Amino acid sequence: MSEYDYDLFVIGGGSGGVRAARIAATHGARVGIAEEHRYGGTCVIRGCVPKKLFVYASKFSEEFEDAEGFGWTVGERGFSWSKLVAAKDQEITRLEGLYRRNLERTNVEVHDSRAVIEDAHRVRLLTTGQEVTAKYILIAVGASPNVDTSLPGVQHVITSNEAFHLNELPEKIVVAGGGYIAVEFAGIFNGLGVDTTLIYRGEEILRGFDMDLRTMVREEMEKKGIRVILNDVFTGIEKHADGSLTGKTKKGETLDAGQIMFAIGRNPHTRDLGLEKAGVEMEASGAIKVSADSRTNIDSIYAVGDVTNRANLTPVAIREGHAFADTVFGDNPWTVDHSLIPTAVFSQPEMGTVGLTQEEALSRTANLDIYKSAFRPMKHTLSGRDEKMLMKMIVDADSQKVLGVHLVGPDAGELAQILGVTLQMGATKADFDRTIAVHPTAAEELVTMREPTERLRG
Fold it and tell me: Of the residues 27, 165, 240, 439, which is catalytic?
């Protein structure tokens, strides 16, 4: 009989933890998992899934307007925030049930409790006080929204967590932040008819993405009526007797709103987890230090997902959890390649990207050919909407290998997924050139751009 209660105990029931638990169990491991909130984690419960549903809802305002150009007459219309929230909650409940059933189907023992680490092989369940032992412990607790706790009046702001459960839609909102969460929620609220302002401390939104795309998305957001304030931050927030808010900024702006939402980053959710007691090394940010195979400095403790701050995306956490389980329990060691990750920002307009930005490519490669095309999508030739699509390809001029592809426009995220396959296979510009176009589509532009718009030589 084993000296441990479990071969593996997972702390955190999000996408990465659940995948690791299930795969380890299919390899024959005795697995337990603990989650203090709801199974599915940030992505399913309070992140990308409900957010994408809200994005869909917010786009109907423009769809109704565009319909007239195609001969449709759209009658009186209205929107119910409460109906959207209720429908979203119903879908999230369904998904959480699937996560639980999939765990139970693979004989993973589920604990509805916060769990903390006591030492390299012991975990305590706070709901019951029970201690369990495991040969291996996997930490997959994710991250939580960051707010500036030193800001006067910060107790009056909401984060993305609360945005999904507002009792009513405000007439005005200010979103603080310039990352994908801030940009996506600004688009959501604007599309639902809310007077929306985005305030960001940097010179341009969406830091880390290609500059051409960053600029275009911001310009298109402004066309849609979103006010974007750059190079500025809040210095204080005041709440009035009627519940409304007034924010003061460093540059002297006075911003009145029904809600102020902070989306200024996320912190690894490691506080009070017992990591220090177990001797697990962490970064100053609270992120857990891990090796390529997700092992901490303690041989029996691993970590995957946002808590490691490697690439904070749900599919990455899933891959890391799978790799961990195969390596430790499946006699099939492998690691996740974080160098080429397709991703999408569900801004309005949408953004999809894979590979190096122009700025990154210039730091690694002396000679580049840049192919870029901006055009009006076919749909808008009849709708009359003043919105363009951008496609950009970055090519190593010497080897002709495609280093990055970046898109802004309808279905950019869907395209990025397929483009990720081509770049993973090492596609060259010639591979794109000899591929026959699908006409009429926006994507055909990717295989018909023949001459570089810019030649950069070191």
Answer: 439
Note whether 413 and 443 are within 8 A (CB).
no
Nearest-5° angle of CA 419, CA 342, CA 90? 115
Burial class (CB in 10 A: 0-12, 13-18, 19+), 77: exposed
pTM of the model as a whole: 0.95
Tell how strand 131-139 and strand 122-125 pair up.
Answer: antiparallel
Residue 177 has pLDDT above 60, yes or no: yes
- Segment (H or E) for 382: helix 379-383
Identity of the residue numbered 198? L
- Is the bond preceding residue 440 a cis peptide, omega within 30 degrees? yes
HSE on the CB side for 172, CA within 13 Å?
A: 12
Mean pLDDT to the nearest integer, 232-257: 97
State how far Cα 9 lies from the chain centre: 26
Token digits of residue 191:
């599309």
What average pLDDT does the segment 272-294 reach? 95
pLDDT digits (tens, 9 = 90+) for 376-387: 999 999 998 999
The residue behind tokens 């974007």 is: 228
Strand-pair partners of 267: 144
Dist. CA 141–CA 132, nearest whole Å = 18
322 in active site: no
Paired tokens of 18? 């659940």
Q: Extract the tokens encoding 325.
A: 């389980």
